[in-house]
Amino acid sequence: MSAPARITGPAEVVADLSWPGTSTTVLRLRAAGGRQMILKGNTSTESFQREHTALSLWAPALGPNTPQLLDADEDARLLLMTVVAGEPLQSLTLTPCQERHAYAQAGALLARFHDTAPRTVLPSFGAGRAAYIRSQLAGGTEPLTGDDLSILDEALHLLETLPAQQAQPSHLDFTGRNLLVQEGEVGVIDFETSRYEAVGRDFLRITQRTLHHRPDLRSAFYQGYGREPDPHEAGLMRICTVTDAAAIVVTATARRQRAFAEEARRVLTAAVRSWPEPAPGTAVPHGPRAL
Which parts of the sequence belong to the Aminoglycoside phosphotransferase domain (predicted)? Predict the structure, then answer.
């Protein structure tokens, strides 16, 4: 018997919340008596396992601000969870004051999430991450420019030579589309990319999409979080901004995911333009290396 049948008995689908262009299915269900739940199915075993782990181990500490796991069917890769009330922050029309309040709450929520389990150490994070980025570029680097490739080369080398990294529970898609707002209260959903990750990486996407061009929201977010990124975190963010954006430009272009490609292109252009010469931590720029 499947997870929804075991928990709810007969239930009807009241909304399909699946994100276009992905293999994930997200359905809002209404069971007998009116109880509403989310049923999420993923064709990726890795994504299922990551979300299952996050909902099992870390989300309970955040209560109604995150989905709470009701049941799981590992064979079918199905997760049944509670509903987090609200609308996506990125879709709301708010006053500047309301926006600052929402981003301050988001920062506080992320800090709580990062503290749900003790830190650990990733001894080869940089080498592993660089290998992943290179695998994304193995089929070609179109439409990256010569300047993109030059800075990407430096960033990959810096990534590969990083020492062991402190790691913490991380969401890794902490952005306005996954932050829900209801009557001024902020919650977060979609934990399929969550895992123990190098400290600082979880600031990356919200910075790329919002904070880098809204200083007022950046200030509110880190006030809510309780502190600014330290120099180590800021350095890692700078490296990963280049590597991640470059990989997304290439892969999203190949998959004809225009919106993702255009967003990543804007991020990469800004990162390349501001990249310091010589390369960080060196007296002269790095020489070219094979991608």
Answer: 21-232
